[in-house]
Amino acid sequence: MSGQSVMIVTGASRGIGAATAKLAAARGYAVCVNYKSDAEAAETVVREILEHGDAVAIQADVSIESDVMRLFEQTTAQLGSPVALVNNAATLEPQMRLEAMDASRMERMFRVNAIGPMLCAREAVRCMSTRFGGKGGQIVNVSSGAARSGSPGEYVDYAASKGALETFTIGLAKEVAAEGIRVNGVRSGYIYTGIHAKGGEPNRVDRVKSRVPMQRGGSPEEVARAILWLMSEEASYVAGAILDVAGGL
Question: Is residue 35 annotated as part of the catalytic site, yes or no?
């Protein structure tokens, strides 16, 4: 077990999650690199971290309650009790209007993007809260500018799930603030990650970046730096905030 502060990053095999895991390790955390299915990608992230830090890859589908409980149990056994959680895992489905969507798609979206983070946060509170003998900690939920724009004509279901995540962030922050836990969110804008391919448009950021006041898309590392700031003592009086990392949008 590590003597370092332990962070769990969900969906950390690529994109924002991988960038966050690497930066967290560089700043002294022992990191659980959670992944759903791509073990090779997760192990690649772990190998990079092990060059200068401590990390393990743990498979778990955040939409399944038993997987989430196992994720926290295995992290505690291998690294130590977590004091930081980044709820980054998310899913996206092909762009379409609402009338073309079926209920199973909507359910998948909410199970991964809203219920999953709630389950992970529940386990984190059980570990971290001073009410249960914990030492406190931080939770950062990764939202999207879609929560504010609504993503009409593309994926209103994804947008709605991220809106739910933001409301949850505010409520949980107030619920556990007196128990040593700070809960915040980042609202990422158009970021160059692989998730756009799941929506059927790998080059989406290049198409829409002219809408951004800064006239460019963002990098996963830029979002990761905001997440790590919210985790840091520099943000010690920040709770229930949603920080826009969106180039001015």
Answer: no
pLDDT in tens, 106-118: 999 999 999 999 9
Question: Which pair of tokens denotes residue 13?
Answer: 């095999």
Measured torsion, CA atoms of residues 241, 49, 18, 26, in degrees rounded to the nearest 10: 30
| pLDDT, tens only, 214-227 | 999 999 999 999 99
* Candidates 35, 155, 158, 190; catalytic one: 158
Tokens 């970046």, located at residue? 209
Q: What is the pTM assigned to this prediction? A: 0.96
Hey, what domains does the chain have and what are their CATH numbers?
A: 6-245 (3.40.50.720)
Name the nearest CA neighbour of 224 among 3, 4, 1, 25.
Answer: 25
Beta bridge partners of 56: 32
